[in-house]
Specification:
Blueprint: H1 3-6, E1 17-20, E2 31-35, H2 48-57, E3 67-71, H3 80-90, E4 96-99, H4 102-114, E5 126-130, H5 139-149, E6 155-160, E7 163-169
Parallel strand pairs: 1-5, 2-3, 3-4, 5-6
Antiparallel strand pairs: 6-7
């Protein structure tokens, strides 16, 4: 029987391609940028006593199960210990704490999630790293997935199973 007699054959569904969807590694939860610029004296200087009072007076439980990026957007010299104090105060509550902006936070969340993948399970597989998603996947996650897959996969492609861009093919 020919293909036209049996109907349309979905070659994508019957192929040996494995789709790796980075969207599956997205961690739901509120992302918060904690900017300490308002804790600076005259917008320029961080006073230790005032900052320690701020740390003690703040109800850090409002950050429970949230992803927090700590930064100072003011052009000021902030001692390292100030960020350490913030991290120490947030640690019992926040899901994740990073120094930097929300982009750095999202990269870290994805990096942590990708570190849990058993990349060896993709041995000799033809892998398509899915290109479209409902959430914004950082470019760093695509780079990390490619780097981690390359030693195992026989080929890596980008896009959708029906339309891919070749990225890597193991030499025969």
């Amino acid at each position: 029987m020919s293909e036209s007699e049996t109907g349309i054959v979905n070659r994508v569904a019957s192929s040996s391609l494995i789709t790796f969807d980075l969207e599956e590694y997205y961690q739901p939860g509120e992302r918060i940028l904690l900017d300490i610029k308002d804790q600076l004296f005259q917008g320029m200087i961080l006073r230790e006593k005032d900052f320690r009072d701020y740390i003690k007076a703040t109800d850090w439980s409002m950050y429970t199960n949230k992803f927090v990026a700590i930064t100072c957007s003011a052009d000021a010299i902030v001692p390292t210990w100030a960020y350490m104090l913030l991290s120490s105060a947030l640690q019992p509550f926040a899901k994740q704490i990073v120094f930097g902006d929300l982009t750095i936070l999202e990269r870290k969340i994805y990096s942590d999630q990708l570190a849990t993948v058993d990349w060896a399970s993709f041995a000799n597989a033809k892998v398509v790293i899915k290109g479209c998603s409902k959430v914004a996947v950082p470019l760093q996650a695509y780079v990390e997935a490619t780097r981690a897959l390359r030693p195992y996969a026989s080929s890596i492609m980008f896009g959708e199973a029906c339309s891919t861009v070749p990225v890597y093919k193991r030499p025969k």
